[in-house]
Amino acid sequence: MILSILIISIIFNVYALYKVNDYKYKLEKKSYTYIEEIRQRNESNMEILSKSLKNNTIKNEELLKLYKNYDVIANDIMGLWQQYAVYNGNNLNSFIRKKSINSNKAIENDVHGYIEEYILCNLNNEMKNERNKLSIDDEYYVCFKSMYEMSEELDDYFNEFNTNRLHGTSGEERERIIIKNHYWVDMLRGIYDIGDNYMNVQWKIEIKE
């Protein structure tokens, strides 16, 4: 009878552990989705900004694309911070050394959110004044150049991370490795550090009559 109880207890604990790990995997799978979306949207931004800086102008359609991309990136980063709060506060992992991020200024240093507002303001100004493109000069050039440099730096970071830690992986294998090793936490730290370098840029939001 004691043996039977012991076996049932072991089976129950194994099943419970399986369910916990399955739940944790599904939870962190969302983080992987956020990371991939940020990477892809950033590539799109870099392409748009590179072309616009060469032409010294950006069409309203491209401004709208930038706005949508930065809106998604800002929301995904916020989602990652929420996921990190769950990961960091999960007592089930108390025996594992967790990866940490100095996130004291995570909300106020939301540079992608500031850029999103900056682009939307410029887009509204151009449409209100019935212009179909924005001339990138003076203070506009400084901001758009900074946006491009940040996108390029972020792209380099993702490529370097892929080379050093995910070389030769793709699809489900890449996803599994990122989740298993909590690499999304490392990437969130990288995104945060890069964005923090551009907080001193004056993202001037001016509504023109």
Which helices and strands, and how do they pair?
Layout: H1 2-55, E1 57-59, H2 60-89, H3 111-128, E2 133-135, H4 138-165, H5 171-180, H6 183-196
Model description:
The chain is an all-alpha fold and 209 residues long. It contains six helices and two strands, in the order αβααβααα. The chain has one domain (33-196). It has helices spanning 2-55, 60-89, 111-128, 138-165, 171-180, 183-196, and strands spanning 57-59, 133-135. Strands 1-2 form a two-stranded antiparallel sheet. The longest helix has 54 residues, at 2-55. The protein is elongated, with a radius of gyration of 22 Å.
N-C termini distance: 84 Å
Secondary structure class reads: mainly alpha
- Number of discrete helical segments: 6
The helix fraction, in percent, is over 70%
Q: Number of DSSP strands?
A: 2
- Major sheet: order of its strands? 1-2
Structural domain count: 1
Q: Which consecutive residue ranges, at least 5 long each, have pLDDT under 50?
A: none
**Helix-strand pattern:** HEHHEHHH
As a whole number of angstroms, the C-alpha radius of gyration is 22 Å
Summed over residues and divided by their number, the pLDDT gives a mean of: 84
Main beta-sheet strand count, sense and barrel state: 2 strands, antiparallel
- Beta strand %: under 5%
Give the overall form.
Answer: elongated
